[in-house]
Amino acid sequence: MSVATPMMRQYLEVKAQHPDAILFFRMGDFFEMFLEDAVIASKELDIALTSRNRGDRDEIPMCGVPVHASRGYINKMVEKGYKVAVCDQVEDPREAKGLVRREVVRIVTPGLNGDGEALDPKENNFLLGIMAARADTFGMAWLDLTTGEFLVAEHNEGDRMRSEVVSICPGEILIPEGDEGDALVVEAAAWLPGTTVSRLPQWHFESDAAVRTLEEFFHCASLEPFGCSELPAATRAAGGIIRYVLETQKGAVPHILPPRVIQSSEFMLLDDVTRRNLELTSTLQGGKRRGSLLAVL
Questions:
Q1: Residues forming CATH 3.40.1170.10 domain(s) in the chain
Q2: CB contact at 8 A, 249 and 112
Q3: CATH 3.30.420.110 spans which residues of the chain?
Q4: Buried b (16+ CB within 10 A) or exposed e, 206-244
Q5: What is the pLDDT of residue 115?
Q6: Which candidate, 238, 208, 240, 241, places its Cα nearest to that of 226?
């Protein structure tokens, strides 16, 4: 298979639409990975790296996994912090006139993995969105795709935002590209082993777009009944999350509950140093969840 073949052109076209994901490309009974994706996947999954056109100038690294066993391999990649775009055959190869039509049917990310077998049933797997409206205002929204729980809050201090992030312990954090709170969020994520930070285009979090996305998704004329109308930064974070879910789940979005406002006065927040020393969510040695108080409980 050379880059000039119709199959490889199809692969490259799909890959160009998902440059930040490992592309699982369905070919018959296997999901194949090519080029840099193949090099990464073969190492992370401990599977053989081969190539097409070995020894030729257009040699193409490749590896693959059986379709029937792909679930475990996808989960393993996600556990290591990668996004996986699953490109399936969307027509019967026997009826195809020429090249089989393929499309990305879902994108699995650390914060949007709805596979119950891959998750600890005792823990939430939250996707967290953060929007810094100003230097002193942080809107937050977090969603567990497996339970549909959807929460929003706003904080007026960076320290409280960081403490809340550590408390939520998300699998993935979404922030706008070039956001003012970028450094603070990355700093907070550093306390959480295995948490991925994903940067999305600014328009995902624009105020009007966020409100429109939420109203359309929850089939309502206003967000006022949810209590979000007085929390513009949190609303923008919530809109960014729903937009991300719609783009990655490709029409297979599970039931999500309307957003529920969390007031900071409802909880006592511990600072990062205290949480770390108490080993609440990760151990001092190695920063692992196993061995922490959360894991024990």
A1: 6-108
A2: yes
A3: 126-264
A4: beebbbebbeebbeeeebeebebeebbbbbbbbbbbbbb
A5: 57
A6: 238
CATH 1.10.1270.20 fits 6-108, yes or no: no
Encoded tokens for 234: 């949190």
CA distance 36 to 203: 29
**Cβ pair 222, 229 in contact under 8 A:** yes
Asked if residue 267 lies in contact with residue 155, where contact means CB atoms within 8 angstroms, the answer is no
pLDDT tens, position by position, 48-64 = 999 877 667 778 999 99
Which residues does 48 contact at the CB level (< 8 Å), separation at least 6?
42, 63
Mean pLDDT, range 168-180, rounded to an integer: 82
Q: Does domain 126-264 have CATH number 3.30.420.110?
A: yes
* Cβ-contact 250, 104 below 8 angstroms: yes
